[in-house]
Design goal:
Distance between the termini: 99 Å
Helix content: 10-25%
Structural class: alpha/beta
Shape: elongated
Order of helices and strands: HEHEHEEEHEH
Low-confidence stretches: none
Strand content: 5-15%
Radius of gyration: 34 Å
CATH architecture of one domain: Ribosomal Protein L15, Chain: K, domain 2
């Protein structure tokens, strides 16, 4: 037996229904779409949330409306107490924190002031709270704030493709 000889058992499958090919086929005249109306027309569909003209659910539930700020910056936060485990004189950078698995995310890093620090550290991060800055400098360490550019902003906010209109209206004297 070859693959081209294989077929389903007789009576186990039914042929495709040919809609709109005359009344003799059993699916003629309106072709199973009923009489007239929007859904009987070519391309006649309503979107999935359409409720027949009644006030849609999304408008009836105001707490579900709103917007998501695409420029929001989500910081990966670390407390000063987490840095107290590091050795004295260590330079703390975002790369080192990720390698040590103190920080798991890939976003910018913010240092918070919860906990105590008794070691002299050089901390480089994207943001610091005032308390964290005081505690690091109070322990004899130094703080360096790194610049961080939002990946979406750098991609979308390139040079302006539409230059401003250079036409000047004549001034009345």
């Amino acid at each position: 037996m070859r693959m081209d000889q294989v077929s389903p058992n007789s009576g186990s499958s039914r042929g495709r229904r040919r809609i709109g090919r005359g009344n003799a086929t059993g699916q003629g005249t309106t072709a199973g779409k009923g009489y007239k109306g929007q859904k009987a027309r070519t391309g006649g569909r309503v979107h999935p949330r359409f409720e027949g003209g009644q006030l849609p659910l999304i408008k009836r539930l105001p707490e579900l409306r709103g917007f998501n700020n695409k420029w929001r910056v989500e910081y990966d936060v670390i407390n000063i107490g987490d840095l107290s485990e590091l050795e004295d004189g260590t330079e703390v950078t975002p790369e080192n924190l990720r390698l040590a698995k103190i920080v798991r995310g890939a976003g910018p890093i913010k240092i918070l002031g919860d906990g105590e620090l008794s070691r002299k550290l050089t901390v480089k991060a994207h943001k610091f709270t005032a308390v964290a800055r005081e505690k690091i400098e109070g322990a004899g360490g130094s703080v360096e704030e790194l610049a961080w550019d939002h990946p979406r902003r750098s991609r979308m906010m390139g040079p302006n493709p539409r230059p401003k209109n250079k036409f000047k209206y004549p001034q009345a004297e």
